[in-house]
Each structure stands twice: as structure tokens, then as C-alpha cells.
Amino acid sequence: MLRARLSEALKTALKAKDDRTVSAVRLIVSAMKDRDIAARPARMDGITDDEILGMLQGMIKQRNESIALYRKGNRLDLVATEQAEIDVIQTFLPTQMDDAAIAAAARQAIAEVGAAGVKDMGKVMAAMKAKFAGQMDFGKASATVKGLLA
């Protein structure tokens, strides 16, 4: 489903001559094709939508890190470019969970897995990634789970 949305977004942006959106969607499609090729021996149909969502979140994380560096270097022109790419990428992600929803999901995952301490954090995070791929920032989720298990 995401593949179709990306293809349609690229066509629409090309027709509208929206260069920023075309560039950002082409970056997404290129990264997706790279991962499809890497997964090819195991899966001929490419990566799943959940994996695409994870890839998109990774792309946003990379751009946020770049923005921080560009701000330190006083390169506001590059900050604007990176932010524009983030805005386009976010249109393909589901609505992100807020801190309260992340905490509730963490509590639920801890109960489902039966986690007793920090040593079970990997199991809890795996359960959350399987259930909430693309819906939350797993960096925040990891900190929340660690706090709850400590």
C-alpha cells in the first residue's frame, strides 16, 4: 500500500512541478529499492510496509541529526532543505503517538511479555516494534521502557 502511495505522490509532484517533493520522494523510493535488493534472496516481493515505515523513521532521524549539525555550523539554508524533506517523509507515516500513548503501550507490552527487569527490555522493545511500527519514536519508547523496568 505504501508503495502505491509513493508512486502516486511522485506522479502528482512531477505534474505539479514540485521539485522538493519530487526530490524527497525519489530519495525514499531509492532507499526502498536498495532494501528490496538486499532482501531479495529471502523475499522476492521486497520489504514489507512495516519495514518501509521503519526506513522512513530512520530517514527522519538522519535528517534531524543533520539539522542539529547544520545549526551548529550556522547553515540555515541546509536546515530548511532538511526540514522540507522531513515534512514530505512525514506525510507517509501514520500519526505519531504522544508520550502518554507511548507510556501506555510500554506498560501493555511489559505486561504481555511478563518483563520483570531491565534484562527483559529487548523482549519488550521487540513486541512494541512488531505492534507499533511507524507509529512511535522508538528512542523515546526505549527510555520509557527502561524507566518503567528500573
Detailed description of the structure:
By secondary structure, this protein is an all-alpha fold. It has two domains: 89 residues, Hypothetical Protein Yqey, Chain: A, domain1; 51 residues, Arc Repressor Mutant, subunit A (Orthogonal Bundle), CATH 1.10.10. Helix 5 crosses helix 6. The longest helix has 24 residues. It is globular and about 55 Å long. The model has no long low-confidence stretch (mean pLDDT 90).
Mean of all residue-level pLDDT scores: 90
Q: Which regions have little confidence, pLDDT < 50, spanning 5+ residues?
A: none
Element-by-element helix/strand order? HHHHHHH
Structural class label: mainly alpha
Overall 3D shape: globular
How many independent structural domains?
A: 2
| Rg computed from alpha carbons, rounded to a whole number of angstroms | 18 Å
The CATH architecture of the largest domain would be: Orthogonal Bundle
Tally the helices.
Answer: 7
Fraction of helical residues: over 70%
Largest sheet: none
CATH homologous superfamily of the largest domain, by name?
A: Uncharacterised protein YqeY/AIM41, N-terminal domain
Look up the CATH topology of the largest domain. Hypothetical Protein Yqey, Chain: A, domain1
Oligomer description: single chain
DSSP summary, beta strand count: 0
What proportion strand? under 5%
CATH C-level of the largest domain = Mainly Alpha
Strand and helix map with partners:
Blueprint: H1 2-16, H2 19-39, H3 49-72, H4 76-90, H5 99-113, H6 121-132, H7 138-149
